[in-house]
Amino acid sequence: MGLKIYNTMSGRKEAFVPVEGNKVRMYVCGVTVYDLCHVGHARSAIVFDAISRYLRFRGYGVTFAKNFTDIDDKIINRAIEAGKTWDEIAATYTREYYEDMARLGVANPDIEPKATGHIAEMLDIIGKLMDKGYAYETGDGVYYEVGKFAGYGMLSKRDLESMEAGARVEIDPKKRSHFDFALWKRSKEGEPAWDSPWGAGRPGWHIECSAMSLKHLGETFDIHGGGADLIFPHHENEIAQSCAATGKPFAKYWIHNGFITIDKEKMSKSLGNFFTIRDILQEFDPEVLRVFLLSTHYRSPIEFSRESLRQTEPSMDRVYSTVLRMGDFLSSFKEKARPSKDDADFSIIAGSFRDKFVEAMDDDFNTAAAVATIFDIIREINRYLDKKPASPETKLLIEKAAGDIKECAGVLNIFVKTPQQWYQSLLAAHKADIKEPEIEELIIKRRQARQDKDWKLADEIRDALDSKGIILEDKEYGTIWKVKV
RNA sequence: GGCGGCGUACCCAAGCGGCUAAGGGGGAGGUCUGCAAAACCUUUAUGCGCCGGUUCAAAUCCGGCCGCCGCCUCCA
Questions:
Q1: Nucleotide nearest to A156 (CA to C1')
Q2: How far apart are CA A90 and CA A78, in angstroms?
Q3: Which of A369, A391, A417 is the last residue of a domain?
Q4: Which nucleotide lies nearest residue A181, CA to C1'?
Q5: A334 CA to B28 C1', in Å?
Q6: Rounded to whole angstroms, how far apart are CA atoms A162 and A167?
Q7: Which of A72, A77, A73, A187 lies closest to A141 in space, CA to CA?
Q8: Closest residue to B36 by CA to C1' distance?
Q9: Strand, helix or coil for residue A65
Q10: Is residue A223 classed as helix, strand or coil in its secondary structure?
Q11: pLDDT band at A101, cuts 50/70/90?
Q12: What percent of chain A has pLDDT above 90?
């Protein structure tokens, strides 16, 4: 069994076979840098980050490109509102974007092209489309004539005729069809502009992705992704432009992530029902958001709420507690028993973990099922350690299990902190009314009380900490603190 | 109107023709513990929106119905 990917183009899962050898070239539509990102953007970024990491884990040589749309009407409008220049706005929100991504554990793609850095390439494609008769000029600029492209609608499964019938927007009389879209927009006075054979102007939205993917990944590449709302018209238009210009197939696999909803409605800027990534990270550890988003299959909608994020915290705490337990166990391990049936049983279970993880991810990047395999192995480790194993096998088995978890969870870039970092981060995220030194102090005080068998005082200290959201756990080697989740 | 998707326990969520319907959260009972916490064990859907049908076998396929959502305008 190999990797299978749901291809929007065919509407079904297909065996993944790269265009060339084991090289994978993928392009994902990035953000328009005119405002802070919301959790919908976070989902898309995290999903494709996990996909690219998994492809590498599977041994593919991945080239991952993700663009920035750094010139468009929203940026221009934002600049006017803010009394700044369009490129200042783009620079500001590009910087903010990187900050958010870093916190969410999203790696930078290999190539991060910007639209304004590819004007020449865009003009080249527009020229080809004009030469081949797919484009025409009006007083406003250059338009792509969708009726000329036979395959138009193949991705979004719609035909021009039925769309024309349902069109809800008034028709621009200069365009030959309502669905014709701008390749080049002639600029008005005061607007940013680049020279072109069709007058000074700026590019239409869709052409940038055709130009950048073509330049950096070639005419035909493996994976093209983005949010499901980009299927039409953005990706449909990219196909029309690219295929018409090159005469070659464009992307082989189309991957689209589902939306985040709030009260069942799509989270979006225009509806105003969004949380920015910043908003959420004020209250939650970034990894909580990441785990939450990866706990649902990437194509399914996710109903977003703080309540759901709060449900994610204890589940993660379970993993970190066990990581801590394994560390403690290994550092104090003493061999004093012969191999037993417990060792053998655990060996079999632990040995299959990695395969199960891969099986889940191979099935169209089923991160939800993959995360579940981590919880499975966590339970098995605890069950095994509860039996106080101490044979020569034991140490190796726990080391291997810990290593496998680290590797597989690492592919999703989750559970990568140390348990201490996790508790400290939770302490901050929960805005606990107590600092670490104070907690340590109280733990020492309580230790004395316990030695004196002053259970009343020991319990008072514990209750006091509990009221501040701190839980104490008495272990063989001492007492540790955790954040109540 | 056209196209697409969704409805699985108290909550979140896998499963997409065949082992007793994953996993997490929560609840109940138990083991352990000075007491706790954590961990583990047992338990919590004879059932997968409703009604029919196909099949030896259906959350899973087909038809109808109900409810919800998305795209068709910028949108991750």
A1: B3
A2: 10
A3: A417
A4: B73
A5: 38
A6: 9
A7: A187
A8: A473
A9: strand
A10: strand
A11: very high
A12: 93
Residue A151 and residue A208 in one domain: yes
Domain membership flag for residue A424: no
CATH number of the domain within which A104 lies = 3.40.50.620
Q: Provide, in whole angstroms, the distance separating residue A375's CA from nucleotide B63's C1'.
A: 40
Tokens of residue A258, six digits: 């589902």
Instruction: Please state whether A275 falls in left (phi above 0), alpha (psi between -120 and 50) or beta.
Output: beta
State the Cα–Cα distance between residues A339 and A94, nearest whole angstrom. Answer: 57
* DSSP SS3 for A133: coil
Examine the domain organization and report whether A57 and A191 are in the same domain.
yes
A125: CB partners within 8 A, 6+ apart: A207, A210, A211, A214, A241, A242, A245
* Statement to judge: residues A118 and A150 lie in one domain: yes
* CATH number for the domain harbouring residue A398: 1.20.120.640
Q: Are A221 and A19 in contact (CB under 8 A)?
A: yes
pLDDT at residue A144 in the model: 97
- β-partners of residue A6 are A13
The pLDDT mean for chain A works out to 95
Could you give the CA distance from residue A291 to residue A312 in angstroms, rounded to a whole number?
7
Through-space separation of residue A359 CA and nucleotide B18 C1' in angstroms: 20
SS3 for A348? helix
Tell me, what DSSP letter sits at residue A114? B
Distance A362 CA to B25 C1' (A): 27
Residue among A146, A90, A129, A122 nearest A213 (CA): A122
A358 within 8 A of A412, measured Cβ to Cβ: no
What single-letter amino acid sits at A95?
R
Q: What is the pLDDT of residues A193-249, one digit of tens each?
A: 999 999 999 999 999 999 999 999 999 999 999 999 999 999 999 999 999 999 999
Length of chain A equals 485
Tokens matching residue A331: 């550092």
Nucleotides on chain B that have an atom closer than 7 A to a protein CB are 1-6, 11-15, 22-26, 33-41, 68-76
| CA-based nearest residue to A243, from A221, A275, A270, A268 | A221
Give the amino acid at A466: D
Give yes or no for a contact between A415 and A378, defined as CB atoms under 8 angstroms apart: no
- How is residue A435 written in tokens? 């600092």
Task: Confirm whether A299 is domain-assigned.
Answer: no
**pTM for this predicted structure:** 0.96
Residue A359 carries which side chain, given as an amino acid letter? E
CA distance A377 to A175: 60
And the tokens for A455? 């259970």
Nearest DNA or RNA nucleotide to A371 (CA to C1'): B23
